Amino acid sequence: MELLSNLALGFGVASSLTNLGFCLIGVLLGTLIGVLPGIGATATIAMLLPITFQLEPVSSLIMLAGIYYGAQYGGSTTAILINMPGESSSAVTAIDGYQMARQGRAGTALATAALGSFFAGSVATFLVALFAPPLTAVALKFGAAEYFSLMVMGLVMSVALAHGSVLKALAMVVLGLLLGMVGTDVYTGAPRFTMGITQFADGLNFVAVAVGVFGIAEILRNLENEHDRQVMTKNISRLFPNRDEFRQMVAPILRGTGIGSVLGILPGGGAILASFASYTVEKKLSKHPEEFGKGALAGVAGPESANNAGAQTSFIPLLTLGIPANPVMALMIGAMIIQGIVPGPNVVSEQPELFWGIIASMWIGNLMLVVLNLPLIGLWVKLLTVPYYVLFPIIMAMCSIGVYSVNSNTYDLFAVAGFGLLGYVLSKLRCEPAPLLLGFVLGPLLEENLRRAMILSRGDPTTFVTRPISATLLVLSLAILVLVFLPQIRKRRDEVFTESDA
Amino acid sequence: MTAITRRILLGSALALGLAGTAAAQFPERQITLVVPFAAGGSTDVVGRIVAERMSQELGQQIVVQNVGGAGGSLGAQQVAQADADGYTILMATVATHALNPLILTQKPYDPVADFAPISLLVLVPNVLAVNPELPVNTVQELIDLAKEQPLAYASSGNGTPLHLSGELFKSMAGVEIDHIPYKGSGPALTDVLGNQVPIIFDNLPSASGHISSGKLRALGVTTAERAPSFPDIPTIAETLPGYETYTWNALFAPAGTPPEAIEALAVAARTAMADPAVAERMAEFSATIVASGPEELAAHVQAEMAKWEPVVRDANVTMD
């Protein structure tokens, strides 16, 4: 059994005292920065990169990996407690997680997120160990046309994120797409909607937009009403889910893990879709879809599992091909190069202790995270009893530091302020920020791949339906679209029939 | 020995002594090295390795700050506008100090007037590689194939050194190949490995792992000489005489920085690059060490701008 001996090698490397220590430091740091609003894994890993100079290659990569999935874990904490998602994945958790917190079920939401993440992380790690090379081959089958169709499917699903008017959700998606256009055109180099500001040449910063429309807007909304100023109701009954809630979360966690594992493998932005896709699926399958957006447990369990599974499987293209799936993975490649390791397909065969050591450490790290986080839930929930005049300024300050630290760009801070105001106006208009964020993230990918596919096919649009994977994805999108609109059409027809009956 | 030569010797010894004391005074606090690209890229890696060794030499910490954005222009602009005291320096590249100034219609800085050159550190070769499924083994076969059927090549983005290496190749070979820009080398490599696009111009360090494993077939390096790390890969110039492009990394301070500070930094850079440990890291990275003085760097910038100006004009690449 080659796999077993490989895993034994991996656990041997990862369970050395030094590597256990660095794994712990990594997940601890990751959790901490994940909990601080606005500071993401990318900024932290970038800041810590020089420290890894002095470490053994395995130790440094174990620590950096720990920061990454630790931050995924911690990021859901701020999303649930103060409606402040630090990454696109936790934007989905914020929808129902924050509502649960407002109902006094913050503890349950946090425990669900932690348990779901642990399960998903463990399963996905196992998948990485078992199927990394064949899965990479599948990922390479995705070209521009396939990514375009995948993004179309993502946009169709985004409509399901809305729990109010579908029209308003569509409007928000379009606004997000437009905001995603800001920056330099990849193909012609023309600046678009940058208002002549060089600092916006690479587009608006995601963290700035997310912190603005979710977090700052929420703070403004809370401040406007003298009587409604506490962030949360104070009657927090219990911290842990009861038996019934455990039963409710099992299926969403399983489905979320599956969705996240599959999408995480795609290096061109598949992982971004994982939590959104899981939310859509849960809402469609739920017996009580009306609960979504008002504190549905499945709306936390599914996306959180999907996001953590995706975080683990996005290591597959990195470890087997040396290809970064996202900015954090690009930093990991930098860390490897600094250590004198040439990233590429040879890492598995030439550095087996590195490859299997990292995989084993991911499982150990996930275990550490759940052990660390479950007892901390009580502490996080207590944070909510901090009075608003202390809490709000701290949140604002942390956000500003976090956003600035990503690119050292003052214009990102102006963007936070601007999008905070926009988010406030939108909440007054009862428009939801989640579809906007999804449009913002998917828009540039959609455009880039559409145009690339068209150049590659030399202007022939049939490329999207003649390539089998792309065609399948488009058919799926159509099916989802029908599923989303069918209930409304049926309802309207029922109304017509009732009228004619009468 | 005549009195005059003795006086000259004495004078230069004095001057050296003075320069020595000034240099000893120069770094009184930490120095910021602005890397105008995101952490983890090749410029960042070179910057961090050099900064670590130079810190030991200068007795003060050199802190790397990544100011990415606008193809390196944001970071370069920040250093151009920084205090000219030697405490803020730039890790410049062929992009910030030759290509961007030629391409951008609104110029955020002047690569010559706004900067004081310190040292040209390394030259990094680029490579022309294809997916092994493309039935070509040499540069000549690629040129012949391109004359028969439409082909496309991937690059790390519009206006990058790799894009212009491709454009220079097309104009010298007299062929038409579609350019497919990506947001960085990583996604471009992914699509060539998956044979979505058959050809790529990439940095040799970023493609080297895939070349050694056989997932990419290297047709030629872009430097005039073969790369020491890959002596089996011919140069493109062996087929197209005169073809030469490479990426380079150099240190610059803002214009008006005191000469003592420049001198101290140049000496530290040279010592750092002479360290066998650093040399070994650079060799792993396929980078050729130059470690020039300030004058050579100034001449290098002029030469690079003169070389790229017609390529940029012919390829009709502009950005606002």
TrEMBL record, chain A:
Coiled coil: none annotated. It comes from the Bacteria. The chain crosses the membrane at residues 7-29, 35-53, 109-132, 144-162, 169-188, 200-220, 253-277, 315-342, 354-380, 386-404, 464-486. Keywords: Membrane, Transmembrane, Transmembrane helix. It comes from Paracoccus subflavus. Residues 20-438 form the DUF112 domain. InterPro entries: DUF112_TM. Pfam families: TctA. This is Tripartite tricarboxylate transporter permease.
From TrEMBL, chain B:
CDD domains: PBP2_Bug27. Keywords: Signal. Pfam families: TctC. InterPro entries: BUG (IPR005064), Bug_dom1 (IPR042100). Coiled coil: none annotated. Residues 1-24 form the signal peptide. The keyword Ubl conjugation does not apply. It comes from the Bacteria. Belongs to the UPF0065 (bug) family. This is Tripartite tricarboxylate transporter substrate binding protein.
